[in-house]
Amino acid sequence: MLQAVIFDFDGVITDSEILHFRSFNEILAPFGAELTTHDYYKTYLGFSDVDCFNLLIRQGILKIDAGKIPDLVAQKDTVFKRLAATEGRIFEGVRDFLEMLSQNNTPMAICSGALLCEIELVLEEARLRRYFDAIVSAEHVKKGKPHPEGFLLALSRLNNNRPNPIPAQRCIAIEDSRWGLEAARAARMHTVAVTNTYDASQLAAAEKIVASLADLAIQDLHQLCS
Predict the structure, then answer these.
(1) What residues form DSSP beta bridges with 90?
(2) What is the pTM of this model?
(3) Is the previous residue joined to 146 through a cis bond, with omega within 30 degrees of 0?
(4) What is the pLDDT of residues 200-224, one digit of tens each?
(5) CB contact at 8 A, 208 and 2
(6) Which of 119, 93, 114 is nearest to 192 (CA)?
(7) Into which CATH architecture does domain 4-15+89-224 fall?
(8) What is the CATH number of domain 17-87?
(9) Coil, helix or strand for 45?
Protein backbone atom coordinates (compact mmCIF):
# COMPACT_ATOMS: atom_id res chain seq x y z
CA MET A 1 0.00 0.00 0.00
CA LEU A 2 1.24 3.47 -0.89
CA GLN A 3 2.41 5.55 2.09
CA ALA A 4 4.40 8.44 0.55
CA VAL A 5 5.31 10.09 -2.75
CA ILE A 6 8.60 11.88 -3.43
CA PHE A 7 8.80 14.11 -6.50
CA ASP A 8 11.66 15.35 -8.57
CA PHE A 9 11.05 19.04 -9.26
CA ASP A 10 12.38 20.28 -12.60
CA GLY A 11 10.72 18.30 -15.37
CA VAL A 12 8.08 16.75 -13.07
CA ILE A 13 6.34 19.61 -11.28
CA THR A 14 7.60 22.61 -13.22
CA ASP A 15 8.55 23.04 -16.85
CA SER A 16 11.84 24.73 -16.04
CA GLU A 17 14.58 22.53 -17.53
CA ILE A 18 14.88 24.90 -20.49
CA LEU A 19 15.24 27.81 -18.05
CA HIS A 20 18.17 26.05 -16.36
CA PHE A 21 19.71 25.45 -19.79
CA ARG A 22 19.41 29.12 -20.70
CA SER A 23 20.74 30.17 -17.29
CA PHE A 24 23.83 28.00 -17.67
CA ASN A 25 24.59 29.42 -21.10
CA GLU A 26 24.20 33.00 -19.90
CA ILE A 27 26.81 32.32 -17.22
CA LEU A 28 29.11 30.38 -19.55
CA ALA A 29 29.08 32.99 -22.33
CA PRO A 30 31.72 35.33 -20.79
CA PHE A 31 34.10 32.35 -20.69
CA GLY A 32 33.59 31.55 -24.36
CA ALA A 33 31.71 28.35 -23.56
CA GLU A 34 28.25 27.19 -24.61
CA LEU A 35 26.11 24.08 -24.21
CA THR A 36 23.98 22.81 -27.07
CA THR A 37 20.44 21.72 -26.27
CA HIS A 38 21.34 18.16 -27.30
CA ASP A 39 24.39 17.99 -25.03
CA TYR A 40 22.58 19.55 -22.07
CA TYR A 41 19.73 17.05 -22.12
CA LYS A 42 22.00 14.12 -22.91
CA THR A 43 24.81 14.77 -20.44
CA TYR A 44 24.24 17.55 -17.92
CA LEU A 45 20.56 17.72 -17.01
CA GLY A 46 20.73 15.22 -14.16
CA PHE A 47 23.44 17.07 -12.24
CA SER A 48 23.26 19.73 -9.57
CA ASP A 49 24.71 23.13 -10.51
CA VAL A 50 27.93 22.42 -8.61
CA ASP A 51 28.38 19.01 -10.23
CA CYS A 52 27.59 20.44 -13.65
CA PHE A 53 30.21 23.18 -13.39
CA ASN A 54 32.72 20.67 -12.03
CA LEU A 55 32.10 18.37 -14.98
CA LEU A 56 32.49 21.23 -17.46
CA ILE A 57 35.85 22.08 -15.88
CA ARG A 58 37.02 18.45 -16.00
CA GLN A 59 36.00 18.24 -19.66
CA GLY A 60 37.99 21.37 -20.46
CA ILE A 61 34.90 23.23 -21.67
CA LEU A 62 34.99 25.73 -18.80
CA LYS A 63 38.55 26.93 -18.23
CA ILE A 64 38.47 28.31 -14.69
CA ASP A 65 39.64 27.28 -11.25
CA ALA A 66 37.15 25.12 -9.37
CA GLY A 67 37.32 27.57 -6.49
CA LYS A 68 35.18 29.96 -8.52
CA ILE A 69 32.26 27.54 -8.75
CA PRO A 70 30.31 28.96 -5.75
CA ASP A 71 30.29 32.37 -7.44
CA LEU A 72 29.04 30.86 -10.70
CA VAL A 73 26.31 28.95 -8.87
CA ALA A 74 25.14 32.19 -7.23
CA GLN A 75 25.16 34.01 -10.57
CA LYS A 76 23.27 31.20 -12.25
CA ASP A 77 20.68 31.23 -9.45
CA THR A 78 20.09 34.96 -10.03
CA VAL A 79 19.56 34.41 -13.74
CA PHE A 80 17.24 31.46 -13.14
CA LYS A 81 15.09 33.43 -10.69
CA ARG A 82 14.69 36.20 -13.24
CA LEU A 83 13.57 33.76 -15.91
CA ALA A 84 11.36 31.71 -13.59
CA ALA A 85 9.51 34.81 -12.39
CA THR A 86 8.34 35.56 -15.93
CA GLU A 87 8.51 32.28 -17.85
CA GLY A 88 8.17 29.42 -15.36
CA ARG A 89 5.05 27.27 -15.41
CA ILE A 90 3.60 24.22 -13.69
CA PHE A 91 2.88 21.15 -15.81
CA GLU A 92 -0.74 20.46 -16.60
CA GLY A 93 -2.21 17.86 -14.24
CA VAL A 94 0.20 18.53 -11.38
CA ARG A 95 -2.16 20.59 -9.25
CA ASP A 96 -4.98 18.03 -9.44
CA PHE A 97 -2.57 15.17 -8.76
CA LEU A 98 -1.23 16.86 -5.62
CA GLU A 99 -4.77 17.52 -4.44
CA MET A 100 -5.68 13.87 -5.01
CA LEU A 101 -2.76 12.74 -2.85
CA SER A 102 -3.62 15.31 -0.20
CA GLN A 103 -7.23 14.11 -0.03
CA ASN A 104 -5.90 10.59 0.48
CA ASN A 105 -3.63 11.79 3.32
CA THR A 106 -0.48 10.83 1.43
CA PRO A 107 2.71 12.53 2.70
CA MET A 108 4.66 14.26 -0.07
CA ALA A 109 8.23 15.49 -0.45
CA ILE A 110 10.54 16.89 -3.11
CA CYS A 111 14.02 15.58 -3.91
CA SER A 112 15.74 17.83 -6.42
CA GLY A 113 19.15 18.87 -7.67
CA ALA A 114 17.91 22.47 -7.84
CA LEU A 115 18.65 25.05 -5.16
CA LEU A 116 16.15 25.44 -2.33
CA CYS A 117 15.50 29.11 -3.12
CA GLU A 118 14.63 28.19 -6.72
CA ILE A 119 12.21 25.48 -5.61
CA GLU A 120 10.56 27.68 -2.98
CA LEU A 121 10.17 30.54 -5.46
CA VAL A 122 8.25 28.44 -7.98
CA LEU A 123 6.13 26.66 -5.36
CA GLU A 124 5.14 29.87 -3.62
CA GLU A 125 4.21 31.63 -6.85
CA ALA A 126 2.15 28.61 -7.94
CA ARG A 127 0.63 28.25 -4.45
CA LEU A 128 1.76 24.64 -4.18
CA ARG A 129 4.10 24.86 -1.18
CA ARG A 130 1.47 23.64 1.29
CA TYR A 131 1.40 20.17 -0.26
CA PHE A 132 4.98 19.27 0.65
CA ASP A 133 6.06 18.15 4.11
CA ALA A 134 9.76 18.10 3.19
CA ILE A 135 12.07 19.48 0.50
CA VAL A 136 15.55 18.14 -0.16
CA SER A 137 17.58 20.32 -2.51
CA ALA A 138 21.15 20.48 -3.80
CA GLU A 139 22.44 22.14 -0.62
CA HIS A 140 21.24 19.29 1.57
CA VAL A 141 23.27 16.42 0.08
CA LYS A 142 26.90 15.63 -0.55
CA LYS A 143 26.17 13.37 -3.50
CA GLY A 144 23.57 14.23 -6.13
CA LYS A 145 21.60 11.87 -8.34
CA PRO A 146 22.12 9.10 -9.37
CA HIS A 147 23.25 8.58 -5.77
CA PRO A 148 20.26 7.74 -3.51
CA GLU A 149 21.26 10.12 -0.69
CA GLY A 150 18.62 12.72 -1.57
CA PHE A 151 15.73 10.28 -1.70
CA LEU A 152 16.77 8.64 1.55
CA LEU A 153 17.05 12.03 3.25
CA ALA A 154 13.62 13.08 1.96
CA LEU A 155 12.08 9.90 3.35
CA SER A 156 13.91 10.40 6.65
CA ARG A 157 12.42 13.89 6.93
CA LEU A 158 8.95 12.57 6.16
CA ASN A 159 9.45 10.08 8.98
CA ASN A 160 10.38 12.69 11.57
CA ASN A 161 8.19 12.21 14.65
CA ARG A 162 6.22 9.40 13.03
CA PRO A 163 5.50 6.55 15.47
CA ASN A 164 5.43 4.12 12.52
CA PRO A 165 8.11 5.09 9.98
CA ILE A 166 7.30 4.76 6.28
CA PRO A 167 9.51 2.08 4.65
CA ALA A 168 11.13 2.85 1.31
CA GLN A 169 9.17 -0.01 -0.26
CA ARG A 170 5.93 1.89 0.44
CA CYS A 171 7.20 5.05 -1.23
CA ILE A 172 6.90 6.06 -4.90
CA ALA A 173 9.44 8.35 -6.54
CA ILE A 174 8.27 10.31 -9.57
CA GLU A 175 11.04 11.27 -11.97
CA ASP A 176 11.68 12.49 -15.50
CA SER A 177 15.24 11.26 -16.10
CA ARG A 178 17.31 8.11 -15.93
CA TRP A 179 19.57 9.65 -13.29
CA GLY A 180 16.63 10.20 -10.99
CA LEU A 181 15.21 6.74 -11.64
CA GLU A 182 18.58 5.19 -10.83
CA ALA A 183 18.72 7.11 -7.56
CA ALA A 184 15.19 6.10 -6.57
CA ARG A 185 15.81 2.44 -7.38
CA ALA A 186 19.02 2.52 -5.33
CA ALA A 187 16.92 3.88 -2.44
CA ARG A 188 14.63 0.82 -2.91
CA MET A 189 11.62 2.94 -3.81
CA HIS A 190 9.02 2.25 -6.49
CA THR A 191 9.30 4.41 -9.57
CA VAL A 192 7.06 6.33 -11.95
CA ALA A 193 8.48 8.23 -14.91
CA VAL A 194 6.81 11.16 -16.68
CA THR A 195 7.75 11.79 -20.30
CA ASN A 196 7.98 15.56 -19.92
CA THR A 197 11.69 15.65 -20.72
CA TYR A 198 12.67 12.29 -22.26
CA ASP A 199 10.65 9.82 -24.27
CA ALA A 200 9.58 6.46 -22.87
CA SER A 201 12.46 4.55 -24.46
CA GLN A 202 14.92 6.46 -22.27
CA LEU A 203 12.90 5.85 -19.10
CA ALA A 204 12.56 2.08 -19.36
CA ALA A 205 13.96 1.61 -15.83
CA ALA A 206 10.69 2.93 -14.38
CA GLU A 207 8.01 0.55 -13.19
CA LYS A 208 5.34 2.76 -14.75
CA ILE A 209 5.66 5.43 -17.45
CA VAL A 210 3.03 8.10 -18.10
CA ALA A 211 2.73 11.13 -20.35
CA SER A 212 1.22 13.23 -17.56
CA LEU A 213 0.49 12.98 -13.85
CA ALA A 214 -3.15 13.37 -14.90
CA ASP A 215 -2.88 9.78 -16.19
CA LEU A 216 -2.33 8.42 -12.66
CA ALA A 217 -5.13 7.41 -10.29
CA ILE A 218 -4.62 6.66 -6.61
CA GLN A 219 -5.36 3.00 -7.37
CA ASP A 220 -2.40 2.90 -9.78
CA LEU A 221 -0.08 4.08 -7.02
CA HIS A 222 -1.40 1.61 -4.46
CA GLN A 223 -0.98 -1.20 -6.98
CA LEU A 224 2.69 -0.34 -7.49
CA CYS A 225 3.31 -0.70 -3.77
CA SER A 226 1.25 -3.85 -3.27
Answers:
(1) 14
(2) 0.83
(3) yes
(4) 999 999 999 999 999 999 999 999 9
(5) no
(6) 93
(7) 3-Layer(aba) Sandwich (3.40)
(8) 1.10.150
(9) coil
